Every structure is written in C-alpha cells, then in structure tokens.
C-alpha cells in the first residue's frame, strides 16, 4: 500500500491550496478526484465560466449606450470555453512545477488513515500518515418534481462545450437564488423573456431583505413569481408547460426552455457513515479549524456547507494545511464573517459581515453610513449611475459589515471585507487615500460622514 503524509479527496479549490502549501513544506501529498484534473466545480461549470458569460454581456450592455449592438450567443460560449481551457492548461503547468500527483477515481474512506480508490484500472488503497482532507465539493440539486428531467441545469449552460449554444426566446428559471438571478439577468439583456419562479416569499431569501429590495428595481426586465412552488414540468411539442402555485392558486406558463436553479447539495465520499464522521444534509460538521469529529480528518469547501464559495474554500483549505503542519493541533481558524459574497447580476450586489437584519437578531447596536454611486466618477464614466455603498459599524466605530450595489461592487466589497477581517475602524477607511477616479473613493467618502 502506497503511503503519503496527506491525502485529499477532491482536487478543487478546497484541496489544491492545501496540497501546494504542504508540498512546499516537505509533506508528500496525493489528490484523488473524479475528474482527474485540478479544478473543482468552479472551473468546470460554476463561477469562472458563468462570469465569462455574464461579464461579456455586461460589456455589451455598456456598449448599448452608444448604439444598437448585439452579439451571437455562440461566440460568448466560445469565449467562455477558451477561458476554461486557458485555466485548465494553467493548472496542469502548476501541478507539474509543484510535482503533485492526482489520481482519477472515486474515493472511499476505509478508516481514519486509509482511502480506497476505484478507477478504470481497478481498485487501490492508499495510506495517510498525517491527515485526510475531504474536499469533495457539491453538485446541482434537482428536486423530485414531475418532469424535472426536462429542465436544464447550470452544467448545460456553463460546462466546457455545453449543451446550450443558442438561447431560447423564453425561459422559466426555477429558483430565485443567486444562480437563478444571475442567469435571469444576462438572459434578459440578450432578449430572452424571463420568468423566475421562487417557492419562498422572496428571491435571494438568505440575504438581507433591505439590501435585496434596493437591487431588484435595478435589474433587467423579468417576471418574478414568489410563493410559487413548482408542481410539474410538461413537454408540449417544442414548448414546455411549467405548472406552479399553492393549492387553489395554480398557474401555468408556456416557455421554450426551463432552467433548474434551486441550489446545490454536498457530495459525501463513501465510508463516512461507517467511520462515524458527523454530518447532515447541509454538510459535514467541522470546527473552525476545519476538523471533523476525527481530528486528523478535515472537511473543506462546499462539502461542509459553511460558506459555499470558491474563495472561502481556498481559505479553508489553507486553514486545514496550517493545522496539519501543527500535528493536527489547531493554530489557524476560518472566519466566515469576513468572506465577501458577490451576486453577479447586472448590476452586481456584494456584501460581507454583519448586516442590519442579522445585527438586530444578535442584539448588536450599529451605526451606518453610505455613499450614493450616482456621485461616483467611474460610475458616470461607465454610465452606471445607480446603487450605493453602505458600511455598518458597532458603537466603537469598528467595521462589522457592509454592502455595495452597482458599479464595480464585486471589487469594492473586498476592502470592506478586509476591514471586517482585521477589525479596522471607520477612521482607518476615512484616512485612506483611495485612487481617483475609482469607485473605491466612495468608501472614504462614506466613512467621513461619521468620522
């Protein structure tokens, strides 16, 4: 049986940062992945390809201030594919330079030091002398709705050489979370008649309601139906009927395509039940050192359900590596409150930390200040004069959270996240000479209102 210091189950963002860190520190590392490549779902069918599409459409929307411009969607798909290929090649080169090994196969945990791998060539077992990192990610959730198999998933849109290379004239998007709303946003700009169907009382229901209410009027035209659970999907020739609504309030719409966007669920490797690794439907239970109830087995990224984002997975991966190097004694911890989240609708919305709805539940007294982006030079240059920057502090003027809606939100939120992470005060932000003309200037402008 081959032996390594550390074995990772998965080779995406929750695994490879740890693998590189450990390898540089003299540990031997084996990565096991079903796809056999270093990527994870983010590159395969998630954040990178979807943003390649969305950012291209966003650029098109900016150009339409100067004329009636259009672009063939198949060319957008070609661009998306080229970005994915560039990054796959980049990862391959990084692997070679680091001298890291990936085995393509399905992993099963035999005991707290042994992993069995089933591949095309048979079954093999590998032993870990220090730790195992479970980084098996998540997959698209498809609810048990009659006709659910007729709907597209995000993989049909965003995987390499995807199924969808031509957009429909109309689409029903089932699910009003960030994936559904991002897709609805770019499709509407490209001329698709979009209906979003959400079973809960509002879209993006896990996010601060006041923040979401400020975004929705800025989005491209779409029909949003809330409190509307989908009952069934039926094919009618080349069209589809989507039946939805509560008892006594049933409705039906006819569309050319349906997208299932109701979220993702963790993928658990076989063997965790036999080993007694604690988990529920949301993910494997871990402490903030990323340890499971078995201290030399870690679970990082989407599989633990804490913060299902690629950049959070990378940070969790490094937390695990640092604690493994300390002989599985925690010396590093993940802070979910300092992880920024961007919804890549057009326009964007980004947030971090403790927002008002959460502060009220926690009994935290807070102060707030804002900067209206209509005053921003870069927003004026981009013809995107809407939205705001809003920052929240505790009574000591320490930054506890914030959000940005509109121009460059996904970039600007990172500085607020740094302030949350490092316990910076509003004075620290007020005294920063932000570059002009950049939307970051709005941070010190907002801070100076209270400082």
Word description of this protein:
This is Dihydrolipoamide dehydrogenase component (E3) related protein. Keywords: FAD, Flavoprotein, NAD. Belongs to the class-I pyridine nucleotide-disulfide oxidoreductase family. The protein contains 14 helices and 23 strands. The radius of gyration is 23 Å and the shape is globular. It has 3 domains: 210 residues, 3-Layer(bba) Sandwich (FAD/NAD(P)-binding domain), CATH 3.50.50; 121 residues, FAD/NAD(P)-binding domain; 104 residues, Enolase-like, domain 1 (2-Layer Sandwich). The strands form 6 sheets. Strands 1, 2, 3, 4, 5, 6 and 18 form a 7-stranded mixed sheet that branches. Helix 3 packs parallel to helix 6. With 451 residues, it is α/β, with parallel strands linked by helices. Helix content is 31%, strand content 26%. The mean pLDDT is 96.
């Amino acid at each position: 049986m081959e032996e390594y210091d550390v074995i990772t189950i998965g080779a995406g963002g929750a695994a490879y940062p740890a693998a590189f860190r450990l390898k540089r520190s003299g540990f031997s590392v084996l990565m096991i992945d079903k796809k056999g490549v270093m990527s994870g779902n983010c590159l395969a069918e998630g954040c990178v390809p979807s943003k390649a599409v969305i950012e291209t459409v966003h650029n098109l929307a900016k150009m339409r201030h100067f004329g009636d411009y259009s672009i063939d969607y198949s060319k957008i798909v070609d661009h998306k594919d080229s970005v994915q290929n560039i990054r796959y090649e980049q990862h391959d080169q990084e692997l070679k330079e680091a001298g890291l090994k990936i085995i393509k196969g399905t992993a099963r945990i035999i005991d707290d030091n042994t992993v069995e791998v089933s591949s095309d060539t048979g079954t093999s077992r590998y032993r870990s002398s220090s730790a195992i990192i479970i980084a098996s990610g998540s997959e698209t959730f498809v609810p048990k709705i009659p006709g659910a198999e007729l709907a597209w998933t995000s993989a049909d849109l965003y995987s390499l050489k995807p199924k969808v290379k031509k957009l429909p004239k109309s689409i029903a998007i089932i699910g009003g979370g960030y994936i559904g709303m991002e897709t609805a946003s770019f499709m509407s700009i490209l001329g698709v008649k979009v209906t979003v169907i959400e079973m809960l009382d509002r879209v993006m229901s896990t996010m601060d309601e006041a923040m979401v209410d400020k975004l929705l009027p800025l989005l491209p035209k779409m029909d949003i139906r809330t409190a509307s659970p989908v009952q069934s999907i039926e094919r009618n020739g080349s069209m589809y009927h989507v039946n939805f609504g509560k008892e006594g309030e049933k409705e039906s719409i006819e569309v050319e395509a349906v997208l299932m966007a109701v979220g993702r669920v963790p993928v658990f490797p076989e063997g965790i039940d036999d080993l007694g690794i604690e988990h529920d439907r949301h993910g494997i239970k871990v402490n903030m050192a990323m340890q499971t109830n078995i201290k030399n087995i870690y679970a990082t990224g989407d599989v633990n359900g804490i913060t299902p984002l690629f950049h959070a997975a990378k940070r969790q991966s490094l937390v695990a590596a640092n604690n493994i190097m300390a002989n599985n004694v925690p010396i590093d911890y993940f802070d979910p409150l300092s992880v920024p989240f961007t919804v890549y609708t057009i326009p964007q919305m980004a947030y971090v930390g403790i927002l008002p709805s959460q502060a009220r539940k926690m009994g935290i007294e807070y102060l707030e200040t804002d900067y209206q982006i209509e005053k921003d030079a870069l927003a004026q240059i981009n013809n995107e004069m809407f939205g705001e920057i809003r920052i929240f502090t505790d009574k000591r003027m320490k930054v506890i959270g914030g959000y940005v809606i509109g121009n460059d939100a996904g970039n600007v939120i990172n500085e607020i996240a740094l302030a949350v992470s490092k316990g910076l005060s509003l004075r620290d932000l007020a005294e920063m000479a932000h570059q002009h003309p950049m939307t970051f200037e709005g941070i010190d402008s907002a801070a100076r209102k209270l400082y």
